[in-house]
Amino acid sequence: MIETALIVETVVKAIIALAVIAGMAGFATFIERKVLAFMQRRLGPMHVGPYGLLQLAADGIKLFTKEDIIPQNVVKPIFMIAPVIAAASAFVAIAAVPYFPEFTVFGYTIHPIISDINVGLLFIMGAASVGMYAPLLAGLSSHNKWSLLGGARAVIQLLSFEVVSGLSILGPVMMIGSLSLINMNDYQIGGVANWLIWKQPLAFVLFAIAGFAETNRTPFDLIEFEAEIVSGYATEYSGMRWGLFFIGEYANMITISVLVSIIFLGGYNDIWIIPGAIAMLIKVSLWIFLFLWVRAAWPHVRPDQLMWVCWKVLMPLALINVLITGIVLV
Amino acid sequence: MFEAIAFYMFSILVIGMFLIVVFSKNALYSMSALAGGMIFISGFFFLLDADFLGVVQIIVYTGAIMAVYAFGMMFFDTTRDVKENIRFKKIIYTLSTLSAIFVIFILLAPVYSGKIEALYPSIQGVGNIQMIGLILFTKYLVPFELAAIMLLAAMISGIVLVKIKMEETPTDIEVAKGEK
Amino acid sequence: MELRGFKNRNVSPGYIFFEGEPKPLTSWEQFKRFLSRAVKGELFVGLWIVLREMIRFDIHTLQYPMEKLKMGPRYRAIHKLLRLFDSGSERCIGCGLCEKICISNCIKMDTKVDEKSRKLVTQYSINFGRCIFCGYCAEVCPELAIVHGSSYEHASEQRASFGLKEDMLTPLDKFKANKQKEFPGFGALSKDADKFVKKTPLAY
To answer: What is the pTM assigned to this prediction?
Structure first.
């Protein structure tokens, strides 16, 4: 009986989280277009609904009703699976993310986390790295040179930045002594002064850079960089399959924002008079704004620069950070 | 009940995936099935409450198979079937069947005789990660460190092998030869 | 021969060759360059500039179908044929200069001598599929009869939509309502044109 209740609760939570995150991911595309437009002195989408708010619905209708084109000579099953991997891995990753402090509804305490496994952080990173298969498989199966180049770049990006993100997160993990995100959050109870960013500034910067790389956002979005490789791995895609890639990308963005907020920026603990849930929302929105802001301001890097900066600068820095943390702790 | 369903589901998936790996002639199918199979194996770890090992399985093997993909990308046109050139079919099939039966026999022998027992039974209240840390840094310290040293040596030798001419671009070499 | 010799095309003497930044040779120099680029704050200047523009909210978007850009008088779009202000008859005298000068051969005119033994333009058409909007026809026209308009919305159902005489000529009712403006743009006389007229030798 208890097992059944648990399963029902988990399924309900999963459906809610899926719907909310998918909706937020869609809404993030609208926000992105607006913010980028404002930063470039444009208005962005304006015609559908008030201030273009319904643009999201228009895009959704367009994507869903478009013909699902599968070009000649592609490897059909792999070509069809790749976008599903992108979206699914992004949504699997949110299973271990706690979004808000626990709250009580009708005398029933709800933990806003789908599954509190005690290796939550590793699980999210594992899911994110599985997500890199999506561009790789899309690139390999598309029978298109741009796609292939995009896939190759996905490989180097994953192989380079997995190392940095893993090593940079080691410092905080060593201090907290747990891989569970809830423990990380509880470690920082008690105001801004207790945030981990003050104790691990280097790890924060490194993890932020790695986060940009793993979500393929602007300084490192070379796997779909229009000026060099038409649209990278997504060149041959259209309609809903293309849409799935982008829902996955934006869901990943949200996950990374939540991760940074929880690990370094105090999580969902109350700040001063702001309740924890609102604080969390503010932090995540600010972080997503940073993603868009950087996209408006900064140029891309070349693949060789990416690997240079990763292996010769960031990885040694991350190692030094781990070493210093170890010395201080011992 | 759920565990049993999950176990059989994962078993079928894993076996199916690895069958594709062996029998497919398309490199892309094989590699993708390999990746899928490796990820499905992590399901067993999760079922056994070994979360840490399951996640490590996913992370390690995604990276590793990513490297296999890189090689596949360099050596094959992955959208086409690979022409296999097998000469001595009979010998290969006999040997592989025999070795498979042998491996199954080795693995099943202790299970059949009922003499299997956990050397380090899991302790209540001690997490997965702590247990692995304890075992790795007490009993298996020397093999662990040896493996680390071997990996380091492999990494350094790899860097040294590539390091020759790494700083020079092809254009620089042409200029040095006086072709420009 | 060195590449530099090729590039030297005897331009003006103060020509400065820029070979790009000196390439960092050692890895320490590379690291220093990385540091100077990363820490110099140029990246943050970029961030600040886009944020400033966002806060300033100085939007330059023109919401096209609702708002339209007013083109300057010198803009060269679809041609117009004008009428004489005094009589309302066509300005075009059928001299054929525009037909001659048109470098993409897209102007075609037919003339005949009418009953008052004046030259009458019966057909005048421009093939806008070929017209490159160079403006020579307007410039060469002695009567300011063919001019460039400012209508830039060229989508139509047929190729010939804008190019016939009836389309380009100012309609009579519009002309009578005093809607025809003297053309201020390409090919027209400037306001101070009188000042530039030199006396011909005969005047001396």
So the answer is: 0.76
